[in-house]
């Protein structure tokens, strides 16, 4: 059976990229008559395979036909914020704060919102925590399943389009309040550059240039990165800029968690370069965060941007 990626003739192009990877008609493996057999499945999509047999296991499906009927229940579910990403020299950095909120309460202080999706990509999410984790886990399995079935990984644009299809599948639940918005980054082996893709509740994706942020603190984080970002900056500088942006977001947005020195809780930071995905160890994340905190003791509003271009 043909692949849904890399401009296969079996499927129509969909999405904003040349050689889009997702067809508008979904590929489904139909159960055969008699006992269920899983050995003859030919689909490259694990999500389509799961849809054929247990659609209730898909994100947003297990809560019934009207999952958001009780608005108070949805309001009190833990929600995750804020994620930032910045392209750097031959790679990209993705970082997220650790706070989850339920209404006006802090639901959890050490949530992880940044994950490895495969060897050369990573994903973070903002929105309803439980649904976000389901989407991330299914996306990880989807990419692994495709590589096993096809013998090669999806292109970076194919991964971005596939995640868009999954987010679009959660639209009904999102309309009821169970919203999940991801931020996807990856290293493009063809161009040798890091790339960033954002989404809305109806899917996407939209490729972002240089840097981007999502979540309730995103407006403050992007404002910070506007002043700090430099094209083709080294990985270490991009990591520092992302932590500065998260600090600024936490300074103005109550739903974004700042560094917790008492509990030793620091942002989750990941880099994706030609060497693959790397999540910074806790000690390294702490070191970068401590550097930011020390600078803020002298300059509470953060490092200033140069008003005049260097001569």
Q: What would you say this structure looks like, in words?
A:
The chain has 311 residues and is an alpha+beta fold. The chain has one domain: Aminohydrolase, N-terminal nucleophile (Ntn) domain (Glutamine Phosphoribosylpyrophosphate, subunit 1, domain 1), CATH 3.60.20.10. Helix content is 32%, strand content 23%. The chain contains 8 helices and 13 strands. The strands form 2 sheets. Strands 1, 4, 5, 6, 7, 8, 9 and 10 form an 8-stranded antiparallel β-sheet that branches. It has a 5-stranded antiparallel β-sheet with strand order 11-2-3-12-13, covered by helices on one side. Strand 4 and strand 5 form a beta hairpin. Helix 6 crosses helix 7. The N and C termini lie far apart (60 Å). The N terminus is likely disordered.
Please name the defining characteristics of this protein:
Glutamine Phosphoribosylpyrophosphate, subunit 1, domain 1, 32% helix, five-stranded antiparallel beta sheet, alpha+beta, 8 helices, 311 residues, eight-stranded antiparallel beta sheet, globular, 13 strands
Provide a concise account of the structure shown.
With about 300 residues, the protein is of the alpha+beta class. The protein has helices spanning about 45-55, 70-75, 130-150, 155-170, 170-175, 220-230, 235-250, 280-300; strands at about 80, 85-90, 90-95, 100, 105-110, 115-120, 120-130, 180-190, 195-200, 205-210, 210-215, 270-275, 275-280.
């Amino acid at each position: 059976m043909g692949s849904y990626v890399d401009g296969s003739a079996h499927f129509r192009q969909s999405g904003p990229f040349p050689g889009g990877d997702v067809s508008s008609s979904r590929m489904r493996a139909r159960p055969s008559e008699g006992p269920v057999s899983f050995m003859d499945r030919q689909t490259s999509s694990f999500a389509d395979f799961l849809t054929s047999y247990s659609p209730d296991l898909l994100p947003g499906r297990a809560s019934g036909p009207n999952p958001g009927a009780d608005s108070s229940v949805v309001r009190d579910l833990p929600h995750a914020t804020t994620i930032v990403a910045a392209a750097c020299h031959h790679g990209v950095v993705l970082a997220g704060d650790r706070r989850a909120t339920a209404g006006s309460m802090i639901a959890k202080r050490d949530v992880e919102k940044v994950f490895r999706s495969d060897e050369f990509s990573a994903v973070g999410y903002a929105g309803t925590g439980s649904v976000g984790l389901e989407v991330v886990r299914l996306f990880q399995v989807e990419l692994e399943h495709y590589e096993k079935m096809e013998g090669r990984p999806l292109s970076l644009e194919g991964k971005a389009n596939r995640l868009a299809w999954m987010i679009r599948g959660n639209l009904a639940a999102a309309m009821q309040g169970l919203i999940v918005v991801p931020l996807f980054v990856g290293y493009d082996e063809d161009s040798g550059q890091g790339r960033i893709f954002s989404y809305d509740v109806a899917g996407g994706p939209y490729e972002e240039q240089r840097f981007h942020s999502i979540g309730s603190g995103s407006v403050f984080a992007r404002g910070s990165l506007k002043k700090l970002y430099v094209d083709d900056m080294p990985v270490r500088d991009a990591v520092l800029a992302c932590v500065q942006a998260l600090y600024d977001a936490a300074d103005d947005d109550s739903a974004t968690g700042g560094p917790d020195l008492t509990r030793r809780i620091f942002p989750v930071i990941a880099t994706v370069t030609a060497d693959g995905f790397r999540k910074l160890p806790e000690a390294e994340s702490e070191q970068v965060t401590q550097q930011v905190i020390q600078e803020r003791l002298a300059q509470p509003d953060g490092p200033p941007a140069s008003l005049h271009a260097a001569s």
